[in-house]
Give the backbone structure.
Amino acid sequence: MHVVLWDTRKNDAQKDFAGGMGVGMYPGRGGLRGRIIQHMYRRDFRPPALHFAYLAAILRRQGHDVSYVVDRTPGPADVYVFNPALMTLGIELQVISRLSAAQPNARILVIGQVAFALPDVFQELGVT
């Protein structure tokens, strides 16, 4: 089975912080200092959310083909997994809608704290 773990770096979200809800960077009023802080923050390496790291290891150990996709349209897969943060929820809902239309037979799973706290948001999309 081919599994795609879809992630985004948009909105400068760190998904493993704030109890899994995610946090972002707000540089204040801008200016030179704000632009410098924003530049340093954006060039910093942000690893994948821990959910994805553990999930990828478990699925690979069970013999599944796993892809980690960041901010691009994934290719065909049997299962797509999303781990939204509050700051990236709108982006991920759009991608889920597009994937549901393009891949009607694929299973779409939403995991993490946002999925647990806001299940109604995902119910309309028909995802698990």
Q: What stands out?
A: The CA atoms of residues 84 and 115 lie 7 Å apart.
